[in-house]
Specification:
single chain, alpha+beta, 2 domains, 4-stranded antiparallel sheet, 21% helix, PIH1D1/2/3 CS-like domain-containing protein, protein-folding chaperone binding, PIH1D1/2/3_CS-like
Length: 191
């Protein structure tokens, strides 16, 4: 063995001893740190609202979560119910007059932002109108029949109390028209 090879081997051993000693010191220092001194990747950036525990207030001391934290419509999910989901379409509608089409006097355009209501068409073959049970919330539509079950999260909030439903027995189709409820509609859709 040459002198140079021995020297590099000794250097590697010395480096290994240096690094292993440093690791033991780090572990010792880490154990003696307080919990507020330990930082991790989650501490980078602005604190999240969920981390701010003072913002969360429980109404019921025994509650696990508040009503705002539960997804709307989750109470209708039933994994043991094997009824199929019917075919459906969601269409957005606008109320348009001649001043809109020919003169362009209103600020409406063909985009979905100018839509007034939502139309949900649900195909229900072999179903009578008396068999349909419909419940509409602000962001969820629940439909149940003996043959079908539909739990539909709506793409936009709606005025659930002002909606209208009509069953067409010749087409075996239910049409539910729901006026949309968006924050800035009073400003954006002024007439």
């Amino acid at each position: 063995m040459s002198m140079e090879g021995l020297s590099s081997f000794q250097n590697l051993q010395a480096l290994s001893a240096l690094l292993s000693t440093q690791d033991e010191d780090d572990e010792y220092n880490f154990k003696n740190m307080t919990s507020s001194a330990v930082m991790g990747p989650g501490d980078i950036g602005l604190p999240s609202p969920a981390a701010n525990k003072s913002a969360y207030t429980k109404k019921d001391s025994k509650a696990i979560w508040s009503e705002e934290e539960v997804t709307e419509g989750s109470q209708f999910d039933d994994l043991t119910d094997t009824r199929p989901k019917p075919e459906y379409d969601i269409l957005l509608k606008q109320n348009v007059g001649t001043e809109d089409v020919f003169l362009g006097m209103s600020r409406k355009d063909p985009s979905s932002m100018c839509c007034d209501s939502m139309l949900v068409k649900i195909k229900l073959p072999d179903t009578k109108a008396t068999d349909v049970v419909l419940d509409v919330k602000e962001k969820f539509l629940d439909l149940r029949t003996p043959n079908f079950k539909l739990g539909l999260h709506l793409p936009h909030p709606v005025h659930s109390q002002e909606g209208k439903a009509q069953f067409y027995s010749e087409r075996q189709e239910l049409e539910v028209t729901l006026p949309m409820n968006r924050l800035m509609d009073q400003i954006n859709l002024q007439r």
